[in-house]
Write a structure and sequence with these properties.
The complex is a heterotrimer. Chain A is of the alpha/beta class. In chain A, helix 4 packs across helix 5. The two termini of chain A are 29 Å apart. The radius of gyration of chain B is 24 Å and the shape is globular. Chain B contains 16 helices and no strands. The two termini of chain B are 32 Å apart. In chain B, helix 3 packs across helix 15 and helix 11 packs across helix 13. Chain C has 13 helices and 14 strands. In chain C, strands 1-3-2-4-5-6-13-12 form an eight-stranded mixed sheet, with helices on both faces. In chain C, strands 8-7-9-10-11-14 form a six-stranded mixed sheet, with helices on both faces. In chain C, helix 6 runs parallel beside helix 7. Classes of the chains: A alpha/beta, B mainly alpha, C alpha/beta. Chains in contact: A-B, B-C. At the B-C interface, helix 3, helix 5, helix 6, helix 9 and helix 13 of B face helix 1, helix 3, helix 8, helix 9 and helix 10 of C.
């Protein structure tokens, strides 16, 4: 339920009436959200709200039982991760989805390896490309040959982000991007997100950190127990009102000030 | 842009500090320290047995025998690496050797001669081809159950261990089939099963050139991309060592001469008059060893240079990540079992050719030796880690121990105990080493 | 994809069921039993009965240790079954897949299925004792087939294995009275390996003591495995620098391995080689002159003797009443304990180039198989 459209550009992504259930449990029920180019959409909600499941349908890691997805206004079929990548959708999972025993270049190009003209792996080209990308994002990164499980959390995160960014993503899904990071690295990620936003990329950001979301997001969609509570412009609401949406499930217009106070215990 | 000041990617070698360990040095220059360790262990074993046997171990004859004895397990060990790396296991390889070996024996002795004519020189080719097909089919069958039906590979191949042992018996009703086709026999080594010295030296030369070419191309590629180079002296040392090993091995194989009566027969065959001092006819590299080398090169290539190999390792490292990256994991798993099946067929061919007979108990317990070889060679049973050359070395280490013990007269039960202790020790060292490296 | 896979599995299952019992295809689903571990007991045609009576309706259970050797299905089993059928008894069997524990379970199962007599080919002569005790307690006679069981209550039917060793050694000693010997022994936990060694020793010990014969290498071979035997001989020849004049191999399977090792050094036919079992490959080698002797134990005679004894025992006869028995005193080499066994010991026949026609006449082997590869000795001439 969109309150006020930001502008009347066509949305980059529209997800309409998405439903996913697992054996009788409705993980996602009739949820509709959209994403415009150059904006960050914060997707928030408590545990079991269904946020991850919803974005997985967009990422191709989960099939929806019903609903449709439109990219640039046109219906899109996203059955596998490869399909999603074909539409320019890149995902950074909460677990990062890195192959621990492989080095950074191999992970960057996992599933999309660069080949020599004889069809063999072109490791040097992949290492070269990785050096260039990481040079832009995280110049201190030097461990191109070591398996990624020997890297720090922040370094692993930067590999995951670099992977998502490198392949000309137009739509970026970030699931808890700063959860495992320290302050300096968190700030780096935020800067990056702002920069990507400025480049016209649309970002869906799942986070449980209300401060992060409030800082970065342009609009916020709140889910509760599989349903969409509502979507609001960040500039129109206070943090408490967002909290109320998350915890109680009431929209800003419906909530009383005493209920708002109760949120703080 | 990031708030942290950007600095250009470094292209020069970092000056080594005074206290860097040998291990760190090797690792920085992309030399597998584990492999180096294993080679040292192998040399220690060889030298040890040489003294214990009164100077018989490090002789051309014994080393030639050793190379042939190692072949059949080593061939399969290279395939087992891929299976274990992708977080599976194949307990059925010994029984598969039985079935495929028996079928190949029946083909060349009973089924094909009526169709192709007795003594047809193509019989061995058809036999081997059909054996490969059968091995691949069995592998694909088991792999499909693992990948598509979802039964754990331990269970599927445990079932296979029983089923294929039964089929091995059924193929010939338990009979021993002997002897093999005249040309097929050569695959097992033996008096006429090697390529002579000329062929061996040519191959040795090619090998040496190949090693140097790889090192040169590696340097060139790094320079092109501006990566850090290995110190020149190190590359030269590696090249010299590599060539020395290859040419040294060829020299050993070519120093093993036919025993006199066989040499006489050879001379007669070739119409050479028998000279006064006797005729030295070198064996050269045995065919099974040649096959092993070929298999090693192909498997190493597949693992390092093809996407298939990369995917196998990715699945082993993080199956979910591989899926999300769009890798067709199920198809890849089936392929690993198919490759294993084909290598089983090659190994079975070598085994029955060497014994010049097929018995229904062929290959019994092979799976244990194959898995042990892969594990001693550095493959982790948790998946994601392993090398082909390591597995070959692992098989060589085990066979050296076993053959060495027989040579010095150590009884059979003691041999089993020793091999078991070595296996556990190797894995224990490996685990500690990995843990320390991870810190 | 899944459906196709299940169809494939179903087809294979049908094939397995259909392909049972290749040899003779008579009474047993022999094929489905030949699995490595976890064997099944199968019923003979007509299903197993549960009770037996003294008036000819008897059931005899056969516990195989491992169906894997060529001779069991080809020779022993058909003879046993024929003798049982002639005596009006039913045949049920089990295969323990080389597992000692499994064999104990098998024996219990056979008794539970109504066996009046149990014939046991023991995987391990010590480990089987509890099963024998159990049978004896239930009043069920036990026949020890081919391999001795150290229990005075068992009926021992075998070839005189010490004699087998003696006969093979005699042929070799005749050919090589002085020189270097290799002795290739069988499975360490098989009492037969030591019986054979005893017989071999009876022939050559004097020469060894006198220094005429030197045994340069001697060891057991796990599971009588031919491949292992080949590797062992490879190594021993290396250590002895090929200076070996005779290899006494305790059976033909290992002789095949020894032959391959000799062939690789061009010594095939120059080193005297022995074996036992008279299997096809070995007899062929005898005809070609590359193996000096294979001691033939007509397993059919053994099977017949065991079957006939089983019939008599099932009919209520006591051990001593069975026809043709004698006493065999077994001395345990470790404990020196003596066990007196009621036994039938058959006489083995050493087959050399001089008496090949015996195996042909007895229809043990076909002439084409015997003479393959251009042999010209004996019945192959002409």
């Amino acid at each position: 339920m969109t309150m006020v459209p930001r502008d009347d550009r066509r949305p980059l992504v529209e997800m309409r009436d998405m439903s996913v259930s697992f054996g009788g449990v409705h993980a996602v029920e009739d949820v509709s959200i959209d994403l415009f180019p150059g904006e960050i959409l914060g997707l928030v909600g408590g545990n079991g709200a269904g946020k991850s499941t919803l974005v997985k349908t967009l990422a191709g890691a989960q099939t929806a039982d019903s609903g449709e997805i439109l990219i640039d206004g046109k219906p899109a079929t996203i059955a596998t991760p490869r399909d999603a990548k074909g539409y320019g959708i890149e995902t950074i999972y909460q677990t990062l989805a890195l192959a621990d025993n492989q080095d950074a270049p191999s992970n960057m190009f996992l599933g999309r390896e660069l080949l020599t003209r004889w069809g063999t792996l072109d490791d040097s080209a992949m290492e070269d490309a990785t050096r260039k990308i990481m040079g832009r994002l995280n110049p201190k990164f030097q461990n191109f040959k070591k398996p990624v499980n020997s890297l720090s959390g922040g370094q692993r995160q930067s590999v995951a982000i670099a992977r998502a960014v490198h392949f000309n993503a137009r739509i970026l899904i970030m699931d808890e991007p700063t959860a495992a990071l320290g302050p300096a690295e968190t700030e780096q990620v935020r800067q990056l997100m702002r920069q990507l936003k400025a480049e016209g990329i649309g970002i869906i950001m799942i986070s449980h950190d209300i401060h992060d979301v409030y800082d970065l997001a342009d609009r916020i969609s709140v889910m509760l127990q599989g349903r969409l509570v509502g979507t609001v412009n960040r500039s129109d609401v206070t943090m408490d009102e967002v909290l109320a949406m998350i915890i109680i499930g009431k929209l800003p217009g419906e909530i009383t000030s005493s209920e708002l106070e109760q949120l703080h215990g | 842009m990031s708030v942290v000041e950007a600095s250009p990617a470094q292209t020069k070698t970092v000056e080594p500090g005074p206290r860097r360990s040998v291990g760190a040095f090797l690792r920085d220059n992309e030399i597998d320290t584990r492999m180096v360790g294993m080679i040292v262990v192998l040399l220690v074993i060889w030298v040890g047995f040489h003294f214990l046997s009164g100077g018989t171990f490090i002789t051309p004859r014994n080393l030639w025998n050793l190379s042939v004895q190692t072949s059949s397990i080593a061939i399969m060990a290279s395939g087992m690496v891929l299976v274990i790396v992708s977080r599976n296991i194949d307990l059925s390889v010994g029984s598969m050797v039985g079935t495929v070996g028996m079928v190949m024996a029946m083909l060349q002795v009973e089924w094909l001669p009526p169709l192709m004519g007795r003594g047809n020189s193509w019989i061995w080719v058809v036999t081997l081809a059909l054996g490969l097909v059968l091995g691949a089919a069995i592998g694909a069958f088991q792999g499909s159950i693992v990948a598509y039906v979802g039964v754990p590979s331990f269970i599927v191949t445990l079932g296979g261990l029983l089923v294929w042992r039964g089929f091995a018996w059924l193929t010939a009703s338990g009979r021993t089939i002997a002897p093999m086709d005249v040309n097929f026999q050569l695959l097992g080594g033996g008096a006429r099963g090697s390529i002579g010295d000329t062929g061996s030296w040519i191959l040795g030369g090619i090998g040496c050139v190949g090693i140097i070419a790889l090192l040169v191309m590696g340097r060139r590629r790094r320079r092109k991309f501006g990566f850090r180079l290995r110190p020149t002296w190190l590359d030269v040392v590696l090249g010299v060592l590599g060539c020395a090993v290859v040419l040294g091995a060829v020299w050993v194989m070519s120093s093993y001469y036919l025993p006199e009566n066989l040499a006489r027969a050879y001379a007669e065959e070739k119409g050479i008059p028998w000279p006064e001092g006797g005729l030295l006819v070198p064996y050269g590299i045995a065919y099974p060893v040649l096959i092993l080398l070929g298999v090693t090169l192909v498997m190493a290539f597949v693992t390092n240079r093809l996407r298939f190999g990369r995917y196998v390792f990715s699945i082993g490292g993080n199956p979910e990540a591989a899926d999300l990256a769009g890798i067709k994991t199920k198809r890849t798993i089936v392929k690993t079992f198919m490759v294993m099946g084909m290598l089983v067929a090659v190994s079975a061919a070598v085994s029955i050719a060497r014994l010049n007979a097929a018995v229904s108990g062929l290959g019994t317990l092979n799976e244990l030796y194959v898995i042990a070889a892969a594990v001693i060679g550095g493959t982790s049973l948790l998946g994601g880690i392993g090398t082909i050359p390591g597995a070959i070395l692992g098989a060589l280490v085990m066979q050296s121990l076993q053959s060495g013990m027989v040579l010095i007269g150590v009884g059979a039960p003691v041999q089993d105990v020793a091999l078991g202790i070595v296996l556990v020790t190797a894995v224990a060292i490996d685990t500690t080493y990995r843990r320390r490296a991870a810190r | 994809m899944k459906r196709r896979l299940w169809a494939l599995v179903a087809v294979i299952a049908l094939l397995i069921a259909a392909c049972g019992g290749e040899e003779g295809g008579d009474t047993t689903e022999g094929g489905t039993d030949t699995t490595e571990a976890g064997a099944t007991t199968t019923a003979a045609e007509g299903g197993a009965t549960t009770t037996a009576s003294a008036d000819g309706d008897c059931v005899v259970g056969m516990s195989w240790n491992n169906y894997n050797e060529e001779r069991w299905a080809k020779h022993d089993e058909p003879a046993i079954m024929a003798a049982l059928e002639a005596g009006g008894c039913e045949y049920i069997q089990s295969d323990a897949g080389s597992s000692e524990e499994q064999q104990i379970t098998d024996v219990e199962n056979l008794i539970a299925q109504g066996a009046d007599v149990v014939i046991i080919l023991a995987q391990n002569t010590q480990a089987i004792l509890p099963a024998v005790q159990g049978a004896t307690d239930q009043g069920i006679p036990v026949i020890a087939y081919d391999r001795l069981i150290e229990d005075a209550n068992t009926f021992y039917v075998s070839f005189d294995n010490v004699l087998v060793g003696q006969l093979m050694a005699e042929v070799i000693y005749d050919l090589v009275p002085t020189g270097n010997y290799i002795v290739l022994k069988g499975n360490g936990s098989d009492a037969n390996s030591d019986f054979l060694r005893e017989g071999i020793g009876a022939v050559i010990d004097a020469a060894v003591d006198a220094g005429d014969i030197t045994i340069v290498a001697e060891d057991y071979t796990d599971n009588w495995d031919p491949g292992l035997a080949q590797t062992q001989v490879d190594q021993w020849l290396t250590q002895a620098n090929d200076d070996v004049q005779a290899i006494v191999s305790e059976n033909d399977g290992m002789a095949t391995g020894a032959a391959a090792a000799l062939d690789a050094r061009g010594l095939l036919g120059e080193v005297a080689l022995s074996g036992q079992d008279a299997d096809v490959a070995a007899l062929n080698r005898v005809a070609l002159g590359t193996q000096a002797v294979s001691v033939w134990k007509d397993a059919r005679a053994l099977g017949t003797a065991a079957g006939e004894a089983a019939v008599q025992l099932a009919g209520g006869a006591s051990l001593a009443d069975v026809e043709g028995t004698g006493e065999f005193v077994y001395t345990n080499k470790e404990t020196q304990a003596e066990t007196v066994l009621t036994s039938i010991l058959l006489t083995p026949i050493p087959i050399t180039q001089d008496n090949l026609n015996e195996v042909v006449d007895a229809e043990w082997i076909a002439v084409e198989e015997l003479c393959a590869g251009g042999a010209t000795a004996g019945p192959c001439a002409g």
